[in-house]
Amino acid sequence: MKPKVLITRKIFDEVVAFVREHFAVEGNQTDTRLSPEMLIKRLQGKTGAITLVTERIDEDVLSHCPALKIVSNVAVGYDNIDVDACTRRGVMVTNTPGVLDDTTADFTWALLLATARRVVEADHYLRSSKWKGWGLMQFLGYDVHHKVLGICGLGRIGQRVARRAKGFDMEIVYTDAIRVPRSTEEELGARFVDKMTLLSESDFVTLHVPLIPETRHYISMAELTRMKSTAILINASRGPVVDEKALVQALQGGNIAGAGLDVYEREPEVEPALMGMKNAVLMPHIASASHETRLRMAKMAAENLVAGLTGRRPPNLVNNKVLSW
Ligand code: DGY
After folding, report:
1. Active-site residue flag, 267
2. How many other β-carbons are positioned within 10 Å of the β-carbon of residue 292?
3. Closest to 316 in 3D by CA, of 158, 325, 305, 3
4. Is the peptide bond before 268 cis (omega within 30 degrees of 0)?
5. Contact 11, 50 (CB under 8 A)
């Protein structure tokens, strides 16, 4: 009998077909988020799971699902999974790094440009038939070219964002827990500064740090008050990296000029005050959502799952010490 696996949400048919070649697959074609109770119920007897960022795999889930051997997350971030708990229980955790870097960087730029140039607001204005013709003072935004871009986290995605900034003749400053090699700084034209210097010098601040205990509320009131009143904050990393309540205060009080957000502290909830703000562009966590990239991510997750359950080391194993070989 084939081992049983769960795919927690809707993914591409061709990827499901590939997984079916190896395992008995249970899916969730309604594509609604499974409640923790339902997740536990559906995981019974499953040795593997393909999960999305909407599912939380924690100690409680693991304690109810002793058959589980691998959790294959369709995302580069895996803050939805308690990796330590998985390691203690011998459960492999995998992610999908690399394949979404350019797509996420493209989208970061879409957010940045849309926020700076008021694209969404102007689109709504036109569609609601308010536009009565060209006006010199209409929808004035902020220039992007020749400004200072501050990148928090110059990893794979942050570097792709920096490359694109060259086309806008921007000055690039960055900060990170670990400084990148000099050669990378030179290639990108990026100057290393500390976080507070970055915040006070930048016209645009874009966040590309992973969500770990040290980066929870990485941007809070102290940071927002260091930013220029004309500055724009972009977050396509993880919601809890920004203190959403502090951000609302900063936007309302004019501490900063705008924010472009793809992620939120308590997804899918969004801080209600943000909803009414014209200087915030709000996207539903879609930075990696291109046909090509989401398919690549799903395939990669499926390959990780198959490898892990057929005695091979999954190519993107996060908790390496779970395997003694
Ligand atoms: C990721 O890969 O971490 C994204 O946020 C999910 O698209």
Report:
1. yes
2. 11
3. 305
4. yes
5. yes
Does residue 64 have an active-site annotation?
no
Task: Note the pLDDT tens digit of each residue in 53-98.
Answer: 999 999 999 999 999 999 999 999 999 999 999 999 999 999 999 9
> How wide is the angle at C-alpha 178 spanned by C-alphas 222 and 185, nearest 5°?
100
pLDDT in tens, 253-305: 999 999 999 999 999 999 999 999 999 999 999 999 999 999 999 999 999 99
CB-count burial class (<10 Å; 0-12, 13-18, 19+) for 141 = middle
Per-residue pLDDT tens over the stretch 127-136: 999 999 999 9
Q: Exactly one of 208, 238, 244, 271 is catalytic; which is it?
A: 238
Residue nearest to atom 2 of ligand 1 (CA): 75
CB 282, CB 46: distance < 8 Å: no
Alpha carbon of 8 to ligand 1 centroid (Å): 16
Q: Which atom of ligand 1 approaches the CA of 288 most closely?
A: 7
What pTM was computed for the model?
0.97
User: Domains in the chain, start-ordered, CATH in brackets?
Assistant: 4-99+291-323 (3.40.50.720), 101-282 (3.40.50.720)
